[in-house]
Amino acid sequence: MNFRGTPHLGLVRQYRYPIGEFTLEFPRGGAEDLSLDEAPRELIEETGLEYSSAIRLGTLRPDTGILTTQVAVWKTVHGIEHLRPGHVEDETGAKIEWYSYGELIGMIRNGKIICGMTLGAITLLGSGGHLNCP
């Protein structure tokens, strides 16, 4: 989403029981299919947003030493008119928060973003020039 000409990215703040703390992560969910078919459901649940278009950035494997899991990374595009600040997911209590790419980099450096899948997705997003896609 662009706000005053600056791309902003939505992350959800949610409690993760395995580590016993709140994290900031890109919205995501589990599915057998890596296609775009499942993404809208998760996006709507966690952010309250629908999207106008989506671009597949790539595929990640979170931990090749112990998992066979593959994760498709999608970038969705929203107009500011769709912004729903403070949306809270009913099931998990996850709350959407919006940050510029510069803010994300600062939060990574300060240990505020620690989720490996989110870090990998940020790398895919930044490395391909996808931050400025319409």
Describe the fold and architecture.
The protein is an alpha+beta fold and 134 residues long. The chain has a single domain (2-122), classed as Nucleoside Triphosphate Pyrophosphohydrolase. It has three helices and six strands. The strands form two sheets. Strands 1, 2, 3 and 6 form a four-stranded antiparallel sheet that branches. The longest helix has 12 residues, at 116-127. Keywords: Hydrolase. One of its GO terms (molecular function) is hydrolase activity. It comes from Arthrobacter terrae. This is NUDIX hydrolase.
CATH H-level superfamily title: Nucleoside Triphosphate Pyrophosphohydrolase
Largest beta-sheet characterization: 4 strands, antiparallel
How many individual β-strands? Answer: 6
Helices and strands, in N-to-C order?
EEEHEEEHH
Low-confidence stretches: none
**Overall CATH architecture:** Alpha-Beta Complex
Output the CATH class name: Alpha Beta
Mean pLDDT: 79
- β-sheet strand percentage: 25-35%
What share of the residues lie within helices?
10-25%
Class computed from helices, strands and strand pairing? alpha+beta
Count of domains: 1
CATH names the topology as Nucleoside Triphosphate Pyrophosphohydrolase
Give the overall shape, derived from the CA principal axes: globular
Alpha carbon gyration radius: 14 Å
Q: How many helices in DSSP terms? A: 3
Distance between the termini: 9 Å
